[in-house]
Amino acid sequence: MKIIQNIKRIPFKKYLHKLKKPLLIISSALIIVVVLIILFISIITKYLIEKYDVKYTGREITLDWAYVNPFTGNVHLSNVKIYEYKSDSLFFSSDGISANITMRKLLSKTYEITELTLDHPRVIIIQNKSNFNFNDIIDKFSSKPGADTTLPPTHFSILNIKIIDGEFHYREMLVPINYFIKNVNIESTGIRWNADTIAAKYAFLPGIGTGDVKGNFTMNFKSLAYRLAIVVHKFDLNILEQYVKKMINYGNFSAKLEANLKATGNFNDAENITTKGLLAVTDFHFGKSKQDDYASFDTVALQIIELSPKNHKYIFDSVLLRRPYLKYERYDYLDNMEMIFGKGGSTVAATTGDAAPFNLVLEIGNYIKALSMNFFHSNYKINKLAIYNGDLKFNDFAISEKFSMDFNPINVIADSIDKNHQRVSAYFRSGINPYGYISVALSINPKDSGDFDMQYNFQNIPLSMFNPYTITYTSFPLDRGTMELNGAWNVRNGFIQSANHLLFLDPRVSKRSKNKNTKWIPVPLIMSFVRENGNVIDYEIPITGNLKNPKFHLKDVMLDLLTNIFIKPPTTPYIMHVKNMETEIEKSLTVKWKMRQSSLTLGEAGFIEDMADFLVENPTTSIAVYPQQYEIKEKEYILFFEAKKKYFLLLNKKNTQSFSNADSLKVDKMSVKDSLFVQYLNRQVYGLGLNTIQEKCWMTIGSAVINTKFYQLTTDRENEFMSYFKDKGVEKRVLIYNAANVIPYNGFSFYKIIYKSEFPESLIKAYEQMNELNDDAPRKKFEKNRKGIF
């Protein structure tokens, strides 16, 4: 009692002062104990991880340091590295791994990580056939047969997962593929033991190339149902290039992806997907090399309103293709597509067998095929379908000289394509380079492809364009003429009723081109039978039957032939008069040069002399000359001659000085397809992978020689032309302008002549008579057609 009374007498402040020191000591001791415990446990944790890593994981694991707080459940591992199985190669690394564990739940066998953060993780996934470099980890932690299932379940949850600036590599050994993505950032609410759904948002960049991807997804682990939103901006698709190269013999591929999609679906069923938004592939290139495209386009874009194969809905706002480009080339052996994909697509077929390795490109193709399989049996609608500024090139190197045709620009526009509409209209228009155009108007029943109406029209196509074929198969080039073809088709239930009109306007056959590899057909004789009085070939060719077996009715053709045989001879003077007037006008306004020729025929020389005489008789008059050079074709002829000449000299053990005019004629007649000549060229360019005779000749001769020969040719032509005016002393009144490199409508280089002040009287008379002839019945009928010709 006395002690208590004494304590009561002590002031409270003095009492606290006396307790302060013991409390400080106790607090400090507790802090030191806690720090020691944390430090001790952290050191032990690092030690245990590095000591028992192989025993429990099968992998070597290292880290710089560990921090473990058993009181708060906070864990951090610094500079973690996990190595490949029995290897010193890295499988996984991270600058830091942080986690918060709910300690109080451990007693109830519930492991809950409330936060898990991976800072700059780097993962390398390696696939070799069906084996992955993490299979050993899966096997290690998978349930073993015979495990005790009577034990109470363990609950495991990971919440608030974050991956900061990760880098994920994928290497496929068989193809091979070496690809990675970087700056991977993922945030997820995590996985709860009593929930089946995970949700996350993500963003990443390609490891090589441009672009970015971001979005979010939700997935149910049990049902595999998912919901996805993704935004892709100019994402480089270089990951596909190695898969593409497995399908081809050689070539390059590049493209970019644009997307802004929202989708729901289920991974168990490819058709169970419903999506909307924008999907586009841009800057697509595929070809022999990066500089030589076989196919390309700027953009193919699908604006999707609703795409749901399972619900039979294909509703698109627009399907657009901008600036598509396709180049098709025929060679002596195969064509450019078969050179890349193998004959009959054999290279692609080799990648599609059951034993073939996984190919992402084929899988994407199969998935698209599965999604679109029921398109025509579904509710489909495309508000706008269009192709803008297309370009289709065709080059044929399999004949005696190169043939080229270029459909450009191609534009296709279709009305709203709707299964519920009775008809859908589409319009196709294209230029044909170097000359001509084509237009097609189509009206089709969207429910039946065998029910359509079509009108088509080919206009202003020069016959000289087809000289590579006419020379190869007949030996005769054409130096004049225009082709037109138009018609109307009405098809019902696959049965055709059509009218087709074929017109050759003013065709003219040039001198025969003699060559050992060209076939001979008497085209001038044939022309005398098929050409009508108006200097045209005009046929109506109806087509009936069905689409699979059409019937061509040639009654009009046969009737015209018979008519020409019996009626045409009396009109021969008229035909010859027309031809003479055409020649008079043509020779007065142009001087035509045959390939590799710099001399004029007697008839042509006579016309030039008449021009010189006209200048002598009219001192105030002058003429302007505009050379129109078919440079590309002239150089091809020079190229062939020089390559054959080089082969001829080698074969006959001659030199340039002993090369005679007779030798020149032999070289001229030699075919560029001669088997021995081709073998010679192949030896010169062995290993260069060249497909065409033209390429092989260029490599054998060299551009410098060809350019020199071409310059000499043009100089000789100018000197030949001017010599007739110099002889009359009027050369100063002849002005020759710089040459223009063109593709002439009539297929040959020529001089265009323009008279200053006055015209020759013979030319004026020829024009007057020609106008009168054009008003006559045989030619009057085609007056409108002739006006549109160049």
Notes on the protein architecture:
- This protein is α+β, with helices and mostly antiparallel strands and 790 residues long.
- Among the domains are: 1-137 and 155-195, no CATH class; 573-787, no CATH class.
- Helix content is 32%, strand content 40%.
- The mean pLDDT is 84.
Oligomer: single chain
Low-confidence parts: none
The averaged pLDDT comes out at: 84
Biggest sheet statistics: 28 strands, mixed
- Indicate the percent of residues in helices: 25-40%
Shape: elongated
- Radius of gyration, rounded? 41 Å
Beta-strand percentage range: 35-45%
Q: How many strands in all?
A: 33
Distance between the termini: 134 Å
Which class of secondary structure composition applies to the elements? alpha+beta
Number of helices: 20
Question: How are the SSEs ordered, and which strands pair?
Answer:
Blueprint: H1 2-9, H2 12-57, E1 61-62, E2 65-69, E3 74-83, E4 90-101, E5 110-119, E6 122-128, E7 131-132, H3 135-141, E8 155-172, E9 177-191, E10 197-206, E11 212-220, E12 225-236, H4 239-245, E13 252-266, E14 269-289, E15 292-308, E16 313-322, E17 325-330, H5 336-341, H6 346-349, H7 360-372, E18 379-396, E19 403-414, E20 417-418, E21 424-433, E22 437-445, E23 448-462, H8 467-474, E24 478-492, E25 495-509, H9 523-530, E26 536-540, E27 543-546, E28 549-552, H10 555-567, H11 572-589, E29 590-593, H12 602-617, E30 622-629, H13 631-651, H14 661-669, H15 675-684, H16 693-701, H17 703-728, E31 734-736, E32 740-741, E33 749-756, H18 761-775, H19 777-780, H20 783-787
Parallel strand pairs: 5-8, 6-8, 16-18, 17-18, 30-31, 30-32
Antiparallel strand pairs: 1-3, 2-3, 3-4, 4-5, 4-6, 6-7, 8-9, 9-10, 10-11, 11-12, 12-13, 13-14, 14-15, 15-16, 15-17, 18-19, 18-20, 19-21, 21-22, 22-23, 23-24, 24-25, 25-26, 25-27, 27-28, 29-33, 30-33
Helix pairs in contact: 11-18, 12-17, 13-14, 13-16, 13-17, 15-16
